[in-house]
Write a structure and sequence with these properties.
The protein has 394 residues and is an alpha/beta fold. The protein is built from 17 helices and 11 strands. The protein has helices at residues 4-9, 27-37, 69-73, 88-100, 110-115, 120-126, 151-158, 178-201, 211-218, 224-229, 264-273, 288-293, 295-308, 312-321, 332-337, 339-344, 384-392; strands spanning 18-22, 41-46, 78-82, 103-106, 131-136, 205-210, 246-250, 256-260, 326-328, 347-352, 356-361. It has a 6-stranded parallel sheet, sandwiched between helices. A 3-stranded antiparallel sheet has the order 7-8-9, with helices on one face. The chain has a two-stranded antiparallel ribbon with strand order 10-11. Helix 2 links the parallel strand 1 (18-22) and strand 2 (41-46). Helix 7 packs across helix 9 (211-218) and helix 8 crosses helix 9 (211-218). It is elongated. It starts with a helix and ends with a helix.
Length: 394
């Protein structure tokens, strides 16, 4: 029989952590999915008959009415409980679940938190060891706290739209809900840090997480130009403001390849890869500043060479042989079919009770720590009675 120490060592890092998940749509559920992937018992609390709004998004041709494809992507390893907050007995059950939780995560608007009595002061007074995380568009304070926020709105206000797209066209949003996902990741990070402190001191924490601030933080060094020099970066499409050549170029087979010469060593190897070693010593291209100055001329030359002298796969091979950063521009299906992705096991198949086998994008990390069992995204209210018994004993 294994010892207690061995059993603990074989448990996922957040095994035994209870998460009361009052979130919906993307940012909050992404956060709690990360906690579930680390072994937390995540109980998703949903509205009767409706549940998470994401259950009703993304009905595609050929898919059945009960398929919840968007919902599936970010709700694995969770249990679903249905509670009706308009009923006093269900609202009291919600409070009691939070009393038993180590973590409670909300992404209601601040006024909705207050309306239902889910403010931090009240819940932490009931459960001082609680890690309370309120994830909202703009935070719990400030002049925008009550504004409605969606991912494109956050992208617009954060500044990332201003540098996305071509210089001769309007600003564009990133083609994925990047503000939602980044906010969820920051939320999981902050929660795990607070849990470590709670284990040490016995007291929890209140985390006020703003999608807007998360998105601005995610801009990273690209914000340095504005912070330190007061300069607004240009919108350059697929080009790079500080590296030339860099961009996306059409190959002879009509597919595109992305390539960048990041430093002078890569520039020399880039020239060899495209068969233009004579450019190395040409004054107009010899240094990075000269290449930035002659950006349009150099890119026009590269564009013609890539278009006429090889397919995307051939260019990918030639640049890779010279250790120049490059990649074919994949669509989603091509990205999933990459041998690299297949070999590393990023995609997970799980049996769903209604949809049959569904494929999910799993956690992007590899670790020696144990993983919890893979369970499918829950049916609405599927676990209500079991969770009430497990957590409340009634």
């Amino acid at each position: 029989m294994p010892s207690e120490e061995t059993s603990k060592a074989e448990r996922p890092p957040l095994a035994g952590v209870r998460v009361a998940d009052f979130t919906h749509v993307i940012a909050g559920p992404y956060c709690t999915m990360m906690l579930a992937d680390m072994g937390a018992d995540v109980v998703k609390i949903e509205r009767p008959n409706v549940g998470d709004d994401l259950r009703h998004v993304g009905r595609y041709p050929g898919r059945a009415a009960h398929d919840e494809d968007y919902f599936y992507t970010i709700n694995r390893r969770k249990r679903s409980v249905v509670l009706d907050f308009t009923k006093p007995e269900d609202l009291e059950r919600a409070y009691r679940l939070v009393d038993k939780a180590d973590v409670a995560v909300f992404n209601f608007a601040p006024q909705t938190l207050e309306k239902h009595g889910f403010g931090a002061d009240r819940l932490v007074a009931r459960n001082p060891r609680l890690v309370y995380c309120a994830l909202s568009g703009f935070g719990q304070t400030g002049p925008l706290r009550d504004r409605v926020a969606m991912d494109p709105i956050i992208q617009a206000r954060s500044g990332i739209m201003s540098v996305t797209g071509r210089p001769d066209e309007p600003p564009m949003s990133v083609g994925a809900p990047i503000a939602d996902v980044v906010s969820g990741m920051f939320g999981a990070y902050a929660i795990v840090c607070a849990l470590i402190e709670a284990r040490r001191t016995g007291r929890g924490d209140v985390i006020d997480l703003s999608m807007l601030e998360s998105m601005i933080a995610a801009l990273g060094p690209r914000m340095g130009e504005t912070l330190q020099a007061g300069k607004l970066p240009d919108r350059l499409g697929n080009e790079n403001p500080m590296r030339v050549p860099a961009g996306m170029f059409e190959a002879s087979d009509g597919r595109y390849v992305a390539v960048m010469a990041h430093d002078q060593g890569q520039w020399l190897r880039f020239c060899r890869a495209i068969g233009r070693s004579q450019w190395i010593d040409e004054a107009r291209f010899a240094t990075l500043p000269s290449r930035v100055k002659n950006r349009d001329e150099l890119h026009d030359l590269v564009r013609e060479i890539v278009r006429t002298e090889g397919s995307a796969a051939e260019w990918d091979r030639r640049f890779a042989e010279q250790r120049v950063p490059c990649a074919p521009v994949n669509n989603y299906q091509e990205a999933l079919e990459e041998e690299q992705i297949q070999e590393r096991g990023l995609l997970l198949d799980v049996e769903h009770p209604r949809s049959g086998v569904i494929t999910l994008v799993g956690p992007p990390w590899k670790s020696t720590l144990p993983s919890p069992p893979l369970t499918p995204p829950p049916l609405l209210g599927n676990d209500t009675e079991r969770v009430i018994e497990d957590w409340l004993g009634t």
